């Protein structure tokens, strides 16, 4: 199996017919068909079923396309990267961030790339932490900021910061006091949580505590906007960070209380695929992301403790 076969195979998969793929690749249909037959023989698997309206991928074809997309993307990035090694940093970089990370550094990251890395083309996507991780695993993004990712040998991770989790709700719902609330007391409150699954891990990484919360939750949602609106409407309370509902907390619409017995926290990681080559552009963007995260923590904008090597502590930690 060689790269030309993979390119031709991917073209057939994406274009849907041999004729369209041949036109896309600028080769004869017979040549394309010949390479496909050789590839199927080499893999001992049927990759497509010929239908009246085109080529329908088999299960083997679907699996091969997932690998081919990743391989071809990596090869293209490597070629661009090496060609640009002695030139100004350039290239495409896709970044995925959880909601809180976008809120903290998203705009500053765009601004810095536009001013410091003008030849880098940034693609920035925001989603719940679990979805961000899935986008990384499927090669839709190159770099991801994710809370509490599961241990996975396919991932290369770096701990960035740790945030304390608070009880958030209207003063009438959770009490207009700064007194800590026990975890056991929260279980009897009308909780609103992220829906079960990979997104819920962003709340906390202690599975036993997470199970208790999920079993008692009144509502489960996979929408930050819906959770925020429900909190403001007094429909329930949630476990989150100061940054999560910063504007509402500052205005007094919502209130927060520390959680004890136990205290709860979550860790933000910068994640990349371990088997994917890193380009100069990705290195530069990664460095910017870590620089901005450190700056927002040390300035007090992001209420967290930095976990980066040799990083200064937050203002709260130094106090």
From TrEMBL:
It comes from the Bacteria. One of its GO terms (molecular function) is DNA-binding transcription factor activity. InterPro entries: LysR_HTH_N (IPR000847), LysR_subst-bd (IPR005119), WH-like_DNA-bd_sf (IPR036388), WH_DNA-bd_sf (IPR036390). Residues 1-58 form the HTH lysR-type domain. The keyword Ribonucleoprotein does not apply. It holds the Pfam family HTH_1. This is Transcriptional regulator. It comes from Nitratireductor pacificus pht-3B.
